[in-house]
Amino acid sequence: MRFCDTHAHYDDEAFDADRTRLLGRDLRDEGVEFVVNMGASLEGAERSAELARRYEEVYAGCGIHPDEVGIFGEEGSSQALSVMARLHGLLEQPKVVCVGEIGLDYHWMVQPKEIQRKWFAAQLHLAAELNLPINVHSREAAQDTFDVIVKHHTRAGKTLSGGIIHCYSGSVEMARAYVKLGYHIGVGGVVTFKNARVLKEVVQTLPLESLVTETDCPYMAPEPVRGTRNDSRNIRYVIAKIAALREMDEEACAAALLKNAKDVYRLA
Ligand SMILES: [Zn+2]
Question: At which positions is a divalent metal cation 2 bound (predicted)?
Fold first, then answer.
């Protein structure tokens, strides 16, 4: 079975001991066709781009996570302009395939909501300008995330070119609305958890073409390895669950989900 991971964090120190072996060989040998490593901070984005340069099967997302948007400082300041310029530079590198992860996090609330929304919107504009898909983090902020994306969908004649709503945790109705706008729904370890009732309904009722697989590793390991350090090989458990929920063959399910991810990131 061949599959892929649309959202991972192999630059995390949890992989310091075996990153080279995993990305250089083990993942590929166990069916992982490619991984998209997400930058979350500016340093993370730089590490992400570096991993993409070093390893054939790794691509990168570069963006500033909502917890990290303090780095922009004041709007219009030289600090803000310099961070944007560095991000812009990274996003033009050949194996950098999306702006991510970006979004809103009202759980930790490291930055006030209004500041988070401002820099989320600014990075959406960057994505539109560069014609890149986005990878969206949204925690306890489902409606605001959707509203910001809708509001900035088209600006100055440029339209956002879709992307992935990572670790999707919203309603079935909202998932449908995202798909209508051209987005994909990121499904990871959570779908294997007992209490993930709504996500299971999303997976059962949305078109298969709108789903993609992800880990968010080192976090979010699926059952039956929940609680351990996660890596992209565990996506096979996620695929088994999606196939079971949709009552379809696992191989066919994996092939379809792989194609969806290639479509989003334009790797086909
Ligand atoms: Zn993540």
Answer: 137, 166
